[in-house]
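Recall that a protein's primary structure is simply its ordered list of amino acids. Everything else, from secondary elements to tertiary packing, is in principle encoded there. The following example makes that idea concrete.
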Amino acid sequence: MFYRALFNFRIRALNPVRLIFAIYIFGFAYGTRNHIVDILADGWLGYDFVPLPINLYWTLLTFFDPLTIFLLLTFPKAGIILSLLIMTTDIAINTGVTVYFYYQTGMLTLDRLPLQIAFGIFVFLTSPLAWKRVKGPTPG
């Protein structure tokens, strides 16, 4: 399994995919932490300031982010696909909500959006390299 190679620190060479996946895992763990904190503070479906589909999506990221970590460690190609899907949809939704609230209130609250966009750009740029270098079955 890939996770054994990822965490085998006796390997002398720093494989670029190990570094890329370590950054992915940190990013999705940070996202998981944020959603858990939000649920603990505001309850299940606590994003009541947005429409229900967005509220549901943000709440479900509490489960999809750790699923991505699991897949990156066990089925890396499926993990790369899910990483790309989550980052694409989450950046699009968060940017849309930010723009909507800016036009409604005149206040620009970026919160964690710039960090998320930077992480998304990293995922978008590094996923082709990771895809070519990981071994294992292609999902689907």
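The mean pLDDT is 90. Helices lie at 2-6, 16-42, 52-74, 76-105, 113-133.
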